[in-house]
Amino acid sequence: MHNPVSLPPGAHLLLADAPAQLLPARELMAFTLASHIILVPMGVALPLITLVMHYRGLRRSDPTALLLARRWSAVMAIQFAVGVVTGTVLSFEFGLLWPGLMGRWGDVFGIGFGVEAWAFFLEAVLIAIYLYGWRRLPPRTHFLLGLPLPATALLGAFGILAANSWMNTPQGFRLDATGNPVDVDVWKAIFTPMFGPQYWHFVVAMFMTAGYVVAGVYAVGILKGRRDRYHRIGFAVPFTVAAILTPVQFVLGDSIARSVFQKQPIKFAAMELVWETDTHVPEYIFGRLHPDGTVTGGIKIPQLDSILAGFRPDTQVTGLTSVPASDRPDPTEATIVHWAFDIMVIIGSLLGLLVLCYAWVVWRRRKRPAAERLPQSRWFYRSAACAGVASVVAVECGWIATEVGRQPWIVYQNMRVAEAVTSTRASTLWTMFGVVIVVYVFIFGSFLAVLLKMRTRWRLEDAAAGTATPAEGPETETPYGPRAAVPAASAGTGARAGEDGTP
């Protein structure tokens, strides 16, 4: 394999000198990661949001809240099953596509994947118990058995973020005479300089995204005229969770940006399109970086980048040209990183404005009955419906900025991507890529079909229930609707849901 260190200045790993299999390997990994991350927010955060609704139902003896929690737990289980499939594919791809990475560095950072595997196992068991308990366990016992679920979800995120943060700021080892890592310190390998900022920024992003996505479903129902209690609570609880965390994310986002500025200055230069090391550096909103270092398009704000980096206009910001061309993102990659970062920040800012609107309306109406405290504006609910999709886009952009900004390194300053790639023929990888696309279309299509089937069943259940009050409450049913064998006296739905059967 060609050694990328010998590339002449200005050459790039994706040109003719790069291994032919590098491009399909990167495209395949990018596709599967981008697909998997769509499911991650619900996998990490939906257990806690469901338990918040469950607690509300038990605390207030609210059958509508219990009905929502039960239905969300069904969605949680289906989503988890799909997430396990896509996550397993990613795990295999690390070994199949990047054997140089796993073969050389697996002993150093592989513990993160082990932690994630145990978290997946525990979460699967706990979800099964939680679903089982809706029909068969006392309400309090059932709720208490569900409490470990959020912790296991966070444990899985811990494992993945430990591995990824190590790739960004590797430590906890020394290299022997042959360049192989020895004397591994597991704790240092896990708790790297970027671990804390990355982990908390990621976790809060997951809770925000899940809250906005779930609330967006009920916002659509409200826009269709379903302003019943089912839709109001289904919207208010997850949206409030996301709203509380949104200002927290601004603080965490600033923290991780400063960590990148200090620990990964070249990535920061790509995020901000800084070509030469200088002070009084301007901030570009969008724009395109060219090979000669000029930036065209976008909005230029003088000195702002230096001010944001160090609170002073004379703060020095490291530029891309401070390292050889072979050790930094090329202009196209830097532009991609910059746009991804800007889109993420803009979406976060718009979500902040939406939260301010929500908080202002709720505060002004705090003395009114609960049914009248939520905003009434259709534009608000249109924005809330879009917030779920926008937050997923922001998560995707965050990962693009993280991964593309580290190029050409797969292990920062220790191993290049081209050194880690498989020796499998490029044609085979392209074929594999095509097969994966077909399989993923089937998987996600099946996931959507199952959700629609569940919604239809819930719609029929709600229509049959009408306004009747159940005899034994919602805990006498499975999450998927009443059992055919259950007597009519014990097969009530717990509360009337929206007419459209929105989950």
From TrEMBL:
- Quote the subcellular location field of this record: Cell membrane
Q: What stretches pass through the bilayer?
A: 28-53, 74-96, 108-131, 143-163, 199-221, 233-252, 336-363, 384-402, 429-452
GO CC annotations on file: cytochrome complex; plasma membrane
- Annotated segments matching region Disordered: 464-503
Q: How does it sit in the membrane?
A: Multi-pass membrane protein
This protein's source sits in the domain of life called Bacteria
* Chief location category: membrane
Q: Pfam families from the entry?
A: Cyt_bd_oxida_I
Keywords per UniProt: Cell membrane, Electron transport, Heme, Iron, Membrane, Metal-binding, Transmembrane, Transmembrane helix, Transport
- Please give the Gene Ontology molecular function terms for this protein: electron transfer activity; heme binding; metal ion binding; oxidoreductase activity, acting on diphenols and related substances as donors, oxygen as acceptor
Bias class Low complexity marks the residues at: 464-496
One biological process term in Gene Ontology: aerobic electron transport chain
Name the family. Belongs to the cytochrome ubiquinol oxidase subunit 1 family.
Protein name per its UniProtKB record: Cytochrome ubiquinol oxidase subunit I
Please give the organism: Streptomyces tirandamycinicus
The organism's taxonomy opens as: Bacteria, Bacillati, Actinomycetota, Actinomycetes, Kitasatosporales
